[in-house]
Amino acid sequence: MRRISRVLPLLIASAALFAAACGAVSGSSSTATPTTVPPTPTPETPDLTVFRGFIYPVKGGCLPDSDKLMPNAPREYRGGVHEGIDFYNYDNCTKIGKGTAIVAAKDGVVTRADHDYHALTQAELSAAEKRISEGQANDPDILDLFRGRQVWIDHGKGIVTRYAHTSDVAANIRVGDTVKQGDVIAFVGDSGTPESITNPGTEEHPHFELRTGDTFLGKGLPPAEVRAIYEQLFTPLSTP
Ligand SMILES: [Zn+2]
Q1: CA of 180 to the centre of ligand 1 (A)
Q2: Sorting pLDDT into bands at 50, 70 and 90, what band is 79?
Q3: pTM of this prediction?
Q4: Distance (Å) from CA 56 to ligand 1 centroid
Q5: What is the Å distance from ligand 1's center to 209 Cα?
Q6: 53 CB contacts (<8 Å, ≥6 apart)?
Q7: Fewest beta carbons within 10 Å, which of 21, 119, 171, 215?
Q8: Around 229, how many Cα atoms within 13 Å sit in the side-chain half-sphere?
Q9: Chain mean position to CA 17
Q10: Could you read off the pLDDT of 186-234 as tens digits, one per residue?
């Protein structure tokens, strides 16, 4: 209980912050524009159960030990921060490789499913790197390009999860579908990573984001607070 009571104020503070920053999430892409719908609105009084009861997007997974793989970790090389969790084979409690099943972290409605994706090209990578050098690293379309082939799920109350770098989307997953927690939605890949061009096969990992309002859970918070929030996120709802 002591840990919970320490974490709850953080959640309340961050949820209030996110509620104030409500807005539409961009679904833009510099490649083919995927079919997306706006997320459900963030309620003014956050229901804290929305930040509980998620499962890891890879069965048997766990949070990485490295803070560098967590949300809000700096990405100096592109002048930004990491907006999700990276699940690698070596730091997430289970085997993860190309083709490993990615599952829905909670019940929800599919709002994006990139069945029609073309692999990142050298020309796109070069153009993006030029824009990054000009300070555009955090433009939504640049971030979207580097997330590669994606699935997004809206869980209601302003909460959306994104599953990125996938090698493929499960054939039966379509925009508008209702999915249950644990349903297979996609498969691990390295799409959107520069290494998918320069060193294929070395960056096979899911990148998982939890969006709230128009940003990601944990934005602006120090690593220990981010970790506490995400530990809470993956705490079953049945645990008080
Ligand atoms: Zn990542």
Answers
A1: 24
A2: confident
A3: 0.81
A4: 15
A5: 8
A6: 106, 235, 236, 237
A7: 171
A8: 27
A9: 19
A10: 999 999 999 999 999 999 999 999 999 889 999 999 999 999 999 999 9
